[in-house]
Write a structure and sequence with these properties.
Layout: E1 8-12, H1 18-30, E2 35-39, H2 41-51, H3 62-66, E3 84-86, E4 105-111, H4 113-120, H5 127-137, E5 141-146, H6 153-165, E6 168-169, H7 183-198, H8 215-223
Parallel strand pairs: 1-2, 1-4, 2-3, 4-5, 5-6
Length: about 220
């Protein structure tokens, strides 16, 4: 059962890292959390490039997207998808485009530099950017899972501006301390951190302190 009272908006923009969004959607569906999903055309192109699946944004086959085979995804039994509603990125009449529509939070995963820039400057040319603007003005949680690297001073300034406006910049920078053996462990680390920010219980990664750490090695590294 979901512990969240209102839907979570998930937006997929045109940055690398589509696998993170697929895994996130799988986990939210398994938890029975209501999701409102939108995907930009650039996001569609990245999904095709990275996951080798051509999604139709006019008639999205959500089942095919969430069952995509990928070396970085742990196979799961697909849960019911009734909790996920899809909206076209050009549909500015959709519920998430209005502050009167109540949502729990919004996650843009992955978040492109262009999307970040539009949000930082308060400009909206599609549903993703408008929904992000709504979440900022309504003082709701907005997570931006950026992946761009290296960063220009413009990227950094835009991150500063959205952070001051209330967003949380959550770079796709997975940790390695949880005992990585598969690529999927790195994906799960990032998805776990996103779920943590949403207040969703999960066991996707080992927590710091949950496993033995060689303190001597840690002290040696700090002294060096």
């Amino acid at each position: 059962m979901s512990s969240l009272s209102h839907p979570v908006v998930i937006a997929i923009s045109g940055a690398s890292g589509a696998v993170y969004s697929v895994r996130l959607l799988q986990q939210l569906a398994r938890a029975g959390i209501d999701v409102e999903l939108t995907i930009s055309d650039a996001g569609r192109q990245v999904i095709k490039q990275e996951l080798e699946i051509d999604v139709d944004l006019e008639q999205l086959d959500l089942s095919a997207l969430l069952q995509v085979e990928c070396v970085a995804l742990t196979p799961i039994e697909l849960p019911s998808l009734e909790s996920i509603r899809y909206y076209h990125y050009r549909d500015l009449m959709s519920p998430m485009a209005s502050g009167s529509h109540r949502t729990e939070a919004m996650v843009i995963c992955p978040c492109s530099g262009a999307t970040l820039g539009n949000i930082a400057n308060g400009t909206s040319s599609n549903l993703i950017q408008r929904a992000a603007d709504v979440h900022l003005k309504e003082r709701r949680r907005l997570l931006l899972v950026t992946r761009e690297t290296p960063l220009s001073s413009i990227h950094i300034e835009n991150m500063r501006r959205v952070t001051q406006a209330g967003a949380i910049v959550l770079p796709a920078s997975p940790g390695w301390y949880q005992g990585v053996t598969e690529l999927s462990d790195l994906v799960d680390f990032m998805v776990a951190r996103i779920l943590d920010q949403l207040g969703c219980e999960n066991d996707l990664m080992g927590r710091w302190g949950d496993q033995a750490v060689d303190c001597d090695d840690t002290l040696d590294s700090e002294e060096s």
